[in-house]
Amino acid sequence: MNTPEKRVTPEDFIRIWQTSNSTKEVSEKVGIDRSAVRVRVDFYRKRGIPLKKYKNARESLNIEALTKLAKSLSSAEPEGEVEK
Fold this sequence. Notes:
It is built from 4 helices and no strands. With 84 residues, it is mostly helical. The chain has one domain (10-74).
């Protein structure tokens, strides 16, 4: 069953966005799904409203450490497995 999205004024949305720490947090506070939050943020940014950017989880990845981990695990293939 679809639930109607909550109506949040642009002013309230911007206050919530600027004082939150993640898209998920905004979604929970305003009662709309994260994709709708991202669409609304993109809409405002395209019109010149300088909404803050949240740190992306991908930006905090330690690529070097993860590369070493992946390589160490790929060398531990079970016997009988053949690389393609």
